[in-house]
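Sequence dictates fold. Below is an illustrative record:

_____
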Amino acid sequence: MGRLHDVIEKRRTVVPRMTSASENAMNWDLTSYFSCFDGPEVAEFKTSLEDAITELQHRCARIAPLDADTAGSWEVIFLEAEGVWQRLSHLGSYLGCLSAADSANEAYKAAEAAFAAVSAEAETLEVDLKRGLREASDADFGVFVQRRPLADCGHYLSRLREEAQRTMSPPEERLAAALGVNGINAWGRLYRTLSGKLEFDMAYPDGRRATLPMSQRRSLLANPDRATRRAAFEGGNAAWAQVEDVAAAAINAISGTRLTLNERRGVDHFLDVALFQAATTWRSLDAMFEAIFDSLELPRRILRLKARAMKTTGVSWYDLEAPLAGLGDGEEAIDWIRATETVQTASSRSYPKLGSFVQSICERNWIEWEPRANKRPGAFCTGSLLTGESRSFMTYNGTMGDVRTLAHEAGHAFHSFILRDMRAYGRSYPMTLAESASTFGEMILTEGILADPAFDAAQKLSALDSATAQGAVFLMDIPVRYEFEKAFHEERGGGEVGVSRLKELMTQTQRRIFGDVLEEGGEDPYFWASKLHFYITA
């Protein structure tokens, strides 16, 4: 692994890129997107993209719905629209990377807000594409997707046609897209800025005090010392309490907008949209949760074991990602170089192509990992349909959980890499598939560590504990999110849901799913505020 270490060190000493001061503070290299943020290249790209969208909108508006006579015209439109989606993803991914890594940068925020207007125009273009497919006969559509230039994107077109059946009139859909810029999407941007700039007071058990960015809280919640975890939990929630009204306004606005649009679009149930996006069915969803709820005692038993090891009556929310008592005590933090080497070695042992890929993304600096102020909490993988490249975002603090996050995001990135030669329409896939790739990355990490003689027995036990605990929490944390959001949307249909009720819904749901394994008072009443996923507007 010395070669990887040498390459990374060399990358750190290259001649500085032509970027802004804020960009130089980032770990990832974004120059394959654009040479710099504040140069003419980005502005010219954006203007060209806007012009292409406007021109396609005008042409779409003049074409009658798809039939035998208009098929040729629609083929050209869809092929050109595919290029627009590629360029849109390229610019959106770039600006998303910048604003996630530095949420306090006002220039980045302004650019991201301006991009929302471009995205809205792209949505209006999609309205016309759906109009073209919505009224097409089955026979005409069947012939259309067999046209040679479209033959390998039939799945995408079929889903677009199906989605078109649940739309408002074209003028109403265009208005909804335009209003979304300063409505639902603005609330999402507000939350991202809020969470990125939010800091909390950390009172360490040894008397030290520090003000930390919220992005560093999660790693502290995985600390072996329970007093440290509790301090991070309480400090973080105290910070969220200071902005609870803003978070509540955002989650209510996002949900309320969706419910209003669903009603206008004739959507029977708010989960119908999510099920379509996930490419699954009510039957599958119900079967999955029935299986989980029938087996809840298994993850509860694992957490009871953890509670016994901690000599407590149960676990609190801040114990969920902690190692089993006695594991990790006195261990040094895993530095970044060791983390990348660990993921690469584990990946290579099970799947050499994945190992090579992990090495390549480290060599190319495609990962934003360093703890810094103003970074958004959480982790994600993004990419450009234009270049076929990906970028991964996380905040690395040296825990085994952080190493697992690295493997998780590497799984996402490898998935995109495998699809890089497919056309843009063919690279569209649901989150149900996307998360399979990342889970695959985590499993390979665990297997690799267990099979690697370089790790001693204690380290292997720690990795096995991390994987086991992750599975136990996953089987209850995801149902908590689902049950909370379901209950919240049901109540939101009758009006806004206040802060106290949001906290009550969350704690009730946690108590119901975790049962008696959750320590009395060990709920997290602010999980609805701190979890980014509840505020995603896409």
About this structure: The two ends are 40 Å apart (CA to CA). Strands lie at 199-203, 209-213, 367-368, 380-383, 390-393. The first strand starts at residue 199 and ends at 203.
